[in-house]
Amino acid sequence: MLASSVESKENVASQLLDSPDFAKIISKIRAANATGLCLSEAIDNLVSLDGRQLVEFGLQSLSPIQQTVLNLAGANRLSACSADDADEGDRSAWYLGVWDYGRIYLDNKLPESACCRVFARVTLVDEQVELVEQAIIDHASVLDSEKKIVEEFFATMSGVDILIMFERVYHAIDHIDPVLLYISDHTFTNFDKYNNLLAKGGKHLPGHLLTDLRSLAPEQWSVQQKFAVFCIYLIAKANQRVEEFNGRQLTPLILDKHFNEKIHEYEALLQKKTVFSLFSLERKAEYLKELKAWVRQEHFIYRNVNGLNFHKTERYATRAALDLSVGNMPDKVRSYIEDRYGIHVARFADIDELFASVIQAIADHPERYAPEHDLSAVEQLLKMVVLSAVEELASDIGMTRSPRDLMAWSQMFAQEHYEAICDLPTTDYFCAVFPSPQVRQQLSSDGDLLFRIVYAIAGRMTFNSWHYTPGHCPLERVPEGRHFYLPPRMSDTAQWSDQHHSGHRMARVRYSIRSPAGLMVNGRKQYGVVDLRLMRMDGAPYNDKELMRAREYTAYLRSIYQSMMDIALAKNCALAVQSFSKDWYKANC
Predict the structure, then answer these.
(1) 510 φ, ψ (degrees, to nearest 5)
(2) What is the signed CA dihedral for 97, 100, 104, 106, rounded to 10 degrees?
(3) H or E element at residue 300
(4) 7 pLDDT exceeds 50?
(5) pLDDT tens-digit profile of 420-459?
């Protein structure tokens, strides 16, 4: 959590506004690893981002030739070097640097991009030079075997098949978080200024892989381009996420190994065993999709997110691990409901019946439950649940988001007004952000700092709701040019969330939980319409047990939102959320 209340508000403000971002981390790493270390020590520091992620994971970013140089010359000492004093004709010299987005550079020639800066060099002895050159020859045969897999795949595809594949690949990376893929010495990403995959907003602009390749036959693509399209397509076909390869090498053989590991994981959960070693990569992708559907019947899948390189890792828990009984209701929420509404919690069979009863009471007797502290009765209930989660899970900030008028939302979908739905303004959504009492106390007297932080978070999360909206509509009914992300289905915990996103940096969101929930809208489940998010500015990362508890709190919020929609529709009454605008935050922060 944020520093204890005995610390001065000046220290707290400094923490919030001066948190080191990713660029500072990279600059520090460059300066600290220029001289005095052996190659293996420097590479460990580089790939772990100075201890911020596991070395074992970071080493997966190295190309096969880089791994060979590390294995052979890891004990060789570094010497300082810059682009000005490098000698590219020297076969024994390998240059060490790092790209601005965090990828290591290790090559016997200098980088051509200004986004990569060399700061050291390692000199190989003659025997090491010969072994590296032999490894390059040996790797060519491995590359040939991978090329054969890809060539055989493309040979079976017609021109129409390739266009369909392109759409699948495009969809797989255009509607998700950033991807950062390494194929040998090449990087393919849609992140920030380094984007070379696809243009923003669904536009087809030259200089982006998925635009440039459309007009070329596969035989005109480079090896790395073929690998990228082939692998992304099969990842999507397997119902996996491309972000699982962020910060790692991605080739057909690496993908095959990954698919084998995922099949073993899923089969272990299902207590199932299949001989799949003879399956083609495409058949493994199809089998993985089948397995994942079976896994989700008894388990839910969640992820851990590395904010340094956007890498996401799947984790699993049984659905029975969640205790959604009314007996597990937090004491504060239970007492609030009983004291405010005179409803005895224990007499209800489940939380849906309980919260339906509370929302029904608010709808039937609005005069009894007047607004307090600029919040309506339903808004107060949302606040109570979120702040209870903030307290129990030792968080600094909590929030929940949703469309403001769920009755109108449901009616628009029932009438299939998809173009109008996609055209809804961001003001038709809200995000209710609540700082912990400690954060509020520490920052409330420091000018408008609390408002700036809270409203920045609310604005970003409100935009997210707007950005997810087309994902609830048939794809063919989404207006051209209306960009969107797929609504989230999986919960996640995240670390180092304050390294890239400007809003997260200002709020110093080091650790977070995102727990989305779906609502039944006209008999169809819409995933990710609402959610609960929790943030910590320092301390320990959220663990799996805390995520499970956050999911239980999310179930309380989902039940409240579902009841608001259902009862508003049944009674044709207004249960919309009016608060949490910019003016509201100014008045209440």
Answers:
(1) -80, -45
(2) -40
(3) strand 299-306
(4) no
(5) 999 999 999 999 999 999 999 888 777 898 999 999 999 9
Q: How many CA atoms lie within 13 A of 383 on its CB side?
A: 17
- Residue 399 pairs in a beta bridge with 433, 533
pLDDT tens digits, one per residue of 549-586: 999 999 999 999 999 999 999 999 989 999 999 999 99
Closest by alpha carbon to 302, among 542, 31, 43, 572?
542
The structure tokens listed for 336 are 């609030």
Kindly give the pairing relationship between strand 511-521 and strand 524-536: antiparallel
pTM of this structure: 0.88
User: Tell me, what amino acid is at 249?
Assistant: Q
Domain boundaries, the chain: 33-132, 157-318, 396-564+577-588
The C-alpha atoms of residue 153 and residue 235 are separated, in whole angstroms, by 15
pLDDT in tens, 25-45: 888 887 777 677 999 999 999
Distance CA 377, CA 368 (A): 10
What tokens were used for 22? 């990713």
Q: How far is it, in rounded angstroms, from Cα 517 to Cα 488?
A: 8
Amino acid at 125: V
Q: Where are the alpha helices (DSSP H) in 156-195?
A: 159-174
Q: Give the tokens for residue 396.
A: 């600094």
The mean of the pLDDT values for the chain is 90
Using CA atoms in the order 324, 326, 330, 335, what is the torsion angle rounded to 10 degrees?
160
